[in-house]
């Protein structure tokens, strides 16, 4: 499955902790991330990650385009709800596309853990079936 990993600046450390905790599960999938987040994941976990541009420079939109093209199966986006983001419209568009295309999206560690446990158990296989049918 294709998994996007994104985090606002104040949440990057939490995302790295999460990825280290779930490295065994994540290592079995194709990982994608926005620029700075992706570089940190590669440097701090050793996982292979395809990097898009930084979020404010269009990375969120690139992930959104992947959703619209049915190329993204799950998104983990640790958002910082307490800090204004200059690219908030892009973040809103990404979340809207996840809803439109029924792509599971976690915006916090609790939900991300549930999604990865479900992924490990095979609960998201319908995403792969749907992709093959289109």
Secondary structure elements and their pairing?
Elements: E1 2-7, H1 12-21, H2 23-26, E2 30-33, H3 35-45, E3 50-51, H4 59-68, E4 74-78, H5 88-100, E5 105-106, H6 109-121, H7 125-133
Helix pairs in contact: 1-3, 4-5
General description of the model:
The mean pLDDT is 90. The protein has a single domain (2-129), classed as Rossmann fold. It contains seven helices and five strands. It has a five-stranded parallel sheet, with helices on both faces. The chain is an alpha/beta fold and 134 residues long. The protein starts with a strand and ends with a helix. Helix 3 links the parallel strand 2 (30-33) and strand 3.
List keywords for this structure.
alpha/beta, Rossmann fold, globular, 5-stranded parallel beta sheet, 134 residues
Put the structure in a nutshell.
The chain has seven helices and five strands; from the N terminus they run βααβαβαβαβαα. Helix 1 packs across helix 3. The two termini are 16 Å apart.
Class per helix and strand makeup: alpha/beta
Secondary-structure element order, N to C = EHHEHEHEHEHH
How many separate helices? 7
For the report, how would you describe the main beta sheet?
5 strands, parallel
Helix content: 40-55%
Strand-residue proportion? 5-15%
Strand order of the largest sheet: 3-2-1-4-5
- The level-1 CATH class: Alpha Beta
Number of strands: 5
The overall pLDDT, averaged over residues, is 90
CATH superfamily: Methylglyoxal synthase-like domain
Give the low-pLDDT segments.
none
- In whole angstroms, how far apart are the ends? 16 Å
Number of domains: 1
């Amino acid at each position: 499955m294709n998994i996007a990993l994104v985090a606002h600046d104040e949440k990057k450390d939490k995302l790295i902790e999460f990825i280290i905790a779930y490295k065994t599960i994540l290592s079995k999938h194709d990982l994608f991330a926005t620029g700075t987040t992706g570089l940190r994941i590669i440097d701090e976990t050793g996982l292979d990650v395809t990097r898009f541009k930084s979020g404010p420079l269009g990375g969120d939109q690139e992930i959104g385009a992947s959703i619209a093209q049915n190329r993204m199966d799950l998104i983990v986006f640790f958002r910082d709800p307490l800090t204004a983001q200059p690219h908030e419209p892009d973040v809103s568009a990404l979340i809207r596309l996840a809803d439109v295309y029924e792509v599971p999206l976690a915006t916090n560690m609790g939900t991300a853990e549930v999604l990865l446990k479900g992924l490990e158990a095979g609960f998201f296989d319908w995403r792969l079936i749907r992709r093959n049918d289109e």
